[in-house]
UniProtKB/TrEMBL annotation:
InterPro entries: Ig-like_fold. It comes from Hymenobacter endophyticus. The lineage of its organism: Bacteria, Pseudomonadati, Bacteroidota, Cytophagia, Cytophagales. Gene3D superfamilies: Immunoglobulins. This is Fibronectin type III domain-containing protein.
Length: 132
């Protein structure tokens, strides 16, 4: 019987260490010459860090830009000020969030950088559509 209890405790410990966070939101929003990233994380037990990667157009690979430690927040924010204006205007910029666990596993979440919501441009597009 003690062997079963020890085995159960070991299995429980391993599952907690490799569980990771549940990311319910990951968003990238272009704001001028920077990109604002935000994500919501719950159940952070077993998380050792968040790694943020950026993929610039036309590259195929992701480059790591920062690693953040978990601090039991519900919302995380990071602003990438090192984005090239030409890249943001001429091709898609994609971000990847890697949730690294104490057990060494990673879970990935990917989001394209969305342009700012420009009310004037949207209104002008609506007016142009009316006269087609």
């Amino acid at each position: 019987m003690p062997r079963i209890a020890t085995l159960a405790v070991i299995c429980l410990l391993v599952s907690v260490l490799t569980y990771g966070a549940t990311v319910t939101l990951f968003r990238a929003q272009i704001q001028g010459n920077s990109v604002h990233l935000e994500w919501s994380a719950t159940a952070e037990q077993g998380v050792s860090g968040y790694e943020v990667y950026r993929q610039d157009y036309p590259a195929d690979d992701f480059d790591q830009i920062i690693t953040l430690s978990p601090n039991a927040q519900a919302q995380y924010h990071y602003t990438d000020h090192n984005i090239l204006p030409a890249t943001a205007g001429y091709g898609p910029v994609t971000y990847r969030l890697a949730v690294r666990t104490l057990g060494g596993t990673r879970t990935y979440h990917t989001a394209p950088a969305q342009p700012e919501d420009n009310l004037v441009a949207r209104s002008w597009d609506t007016i142009k559509l009316m006269f087609r």
